[in-house]
Amino acid sequence: MPQNTTRMSLLASPLTSDLMGTAWLYRFPDKIEHEWNKLRAIYRGKTGSKANLPYAALLTVLRASGSTSASLSPTSKKNPPQFLALSTKLPAVHLRAVVALWEQALLQTPPDEISLAYSSSLADLFASVEPEQVAIWDHVSIGQRAVDADGWVWDAASWNLASLVTKTDLKVDGRTIPLRPDTGNNVMVWDTEHLWSNNWLDARPAKEKTNDSAKNTAEEILQPEGWKIRRHYAALRVEVAMKSLHSLPKPLVVLTPRVSRLSNTINGARTAWWAPRSPSRPLLCLRLGGKGQYTHLEHTSRLALDAWVRLMDEPVFPRNPQDTEFLPAGAMDLSGEPGHFRALIPFSTSFPIGKGVGLHTVTALADHLATVTGQNLIHGTRVPTVLSVAGRKTEYGRDTTLLDATDLKDIMAAAGCSKLRVLALYEHQEMRTRMQRLLAYHFNRPDLADGLPDDKIVHLGCHTEVLLHRAPELLAHGRHHDRRGALTDALPGLAAENTGILALVETEYDAKEWGRQRRAARRGEEGALDPYELDAKPEVSRHLARHGVIAQFLTPETKKRRSKKKAREATSPLETLGRELDADYPGHHAIGDMLRSAGLVHPRLTRTISAKGGLQDRVAHLGLHMRAQLGDKHRTRTEEPKLMWILTAFVPVGEHWNALAYLPASRDGSGGWCNYARAQALSRSRPIPEGSRGDETLPRRIDQALYELSRHLENGYVLYVSGDSTRPVWPLLANKNADLHPDDDGCANGRPALPGATLAPEHRPRAIIRTTSSAGPSIPLPAVFHEIDEDGNVSDGDKTSNALFQLNDTATTFIMSRRPQQMDGKTPSAKSGRTQSRWACDDKEQQAETWYNLTATEIAVIQHPHGEEPLPYALTAARLCNHALAWEHRTRHPLPVHAGIQMDKNHPAYRRTIDWDTDDDATD
After folding, report:
1. Residue 241 in 3-state DSSP?
2. Which helix (H) or strand (E) covers residue 516, if one does?
3. What separation, in Å, do the N-terminal and C-terminal C-alpha atoms of the chain show?
4. DSSP 8-state class, residue 448
């Protein structure tokens, strides 16, 4: 029986010459290089800075005052700008004034001496240039499978597209909502009447109380606290950008919507907007720095606003006569109805308006994009096959498929051990009881749920033993980090032959409270301490890793959870215990992640890979994860940048799989390929290595690692790489280079073209698959689904999908739609945003919830064997996203990459990082 074809439409549209518009190129004379260098020398002499000139401030003033895009190129220290690109031609007088004001502000000219009549050779050169109007399309190189252009082209096109998007009001739920562009190529809802608003009293109304609390509740309702009735606001913000997708020979416009939650104070904010008096001018996107009451305009934003005020004769902030600072004290308070100056909340925190815009708003934006561009959206066709094959299944949180397997001993042998030992370290009796019950349940000894002794090895089921030990001094937070090493060395049960030793460790952690304490410490409040400096977890993890022990931490339960499953009569003591523990989700996840750390891989992985349409050969599956970490004091560059890169491998061994990982060699010589568990212990016991992705030796070192493993593989291997982090290292991983062909040495443009490309053919990857998540703005979101029957009739499809789609007009690029698991829940908020937008939602409690929409993973088959179709490789990658070792749901990247990411996150020195902004970001 014929089946309908499912078509997915992305929140992206193809571009034409008319949609891109035009730009004005100001080509400077050669003598301008001397003026740039002279100005930089004077600037450095006055400020003591060794940095480049702050061109961003000049460009911000040009964008805001001229309602135009603005790009200078190049902007490196060695090569000062040679031309300026604007989307609108500016009068020579205007251009000269902007440069002259920027130069005076740059050189710290006293405010009362700044003048438009300032003598500036640089400004004169700007004004002397007669610009050339060019079609942006003519400066885009479109090959058979790639789109490439200079940076100014992407910026100018994005500006023109943002202007186009705002010319037509957004229509949703019977409303007509004006949009306004900013200088960062975003469009925002700015009119106060169309902002979303809520307060905590409505978002979280008090539940009915009884007995002694009834009187207090009544008084509270009559006189609610101020913070409960304070109104908060949020706005729709949409990033508009010209982008490209792999192997798709057409440039795209991509919309990425967000909920921008507005702060009621400027303290600690990092991003802000200021609205000029004229509604036709774009919002000025500003950057802020400093902490707390010392928050200030970042240098380039200060320069930009200083020049703006003098050029446009339009004050930014209301001022009192006693105000001496550019950012007066009166401007710090943003409470009340939002005005001309607005700031984003400085960090993720509780807010009465939730994150996410929901499916309905994404669909409305898709309709809006199709309307303003006059183009069909970018489509993909569903691959008619099942992705979720032989996934992980749990019963009351227990991985029965793995732990009850008849060949569990062989699974452990493939992981490098004959049994497991769990060292349960606790401080409080409540946690001890919880740990022993969890361990008794997961390892099939319900009779021991209430009867495990301390400091004695007890044999559980599933080839596992446990040792409970109280270690209050080791686990307590505090400044005694110098004693934790000796305390760890004194622990019992740290060594056993042919035994994988894991530690389930108690710790205390409250993200909200710790965040408040950290901010108080940074503000210098009396008695305030930064809890992260006292945190025991990193030190305990590192010292246990020295002994080859992998730590998994478990926090106390802050509230009792109830199981949502229907009650039924238990048929065994194990099921009885499981039902009692069913709602302990953190505990079950901790046990699961502990087993993942041990490298236990169930043979169901074979069924996942070789299911219908997938790879049938028993090849190894490797993953490459890479992450740059600039260091804790990156602002003053007192630490060298660090680079964590990890190769993981899942190698078939008979009917089982051996999980391996590769670590770069450290100073003591440890490193190389080893079992996944051993690699984690090595990784945690040593610091993150120094380095950067710009290191010319990095690709060769990774090739050497691939060579060392490939020598021992019978059927070769497939390599999966994260596109978010690896594209700057290898040319052919970038979209713009899809038409390049490596030379005989495996290089392109003088660099190794792909991982393994410089190796002999028999040691190269059989295929290379790049996966990129829509967590970044380079991958468009799934928006609309339609069903097409055999006669070509089109009808509305489901609102969501978890399927794999092949992108139209390309054979090697696929989009896997991902429905967040929260959308499958049974709570009312799981369906929020499916049938209405936040503008139409009158339920204030729902407004405070996160509204989910679909996300996506792009799967690009960069390389595959000649004569073979790319689909089996893409399908295998998609199925491996459904096969995390310790999680039932879908991950952003395939199993080998995900295993490397988790290994990185478990490192004691892991923290929020600032990754590179690469040139490829502009062209991807």
Report:
1. strand
2. helix 511-522
3. 41
4. G
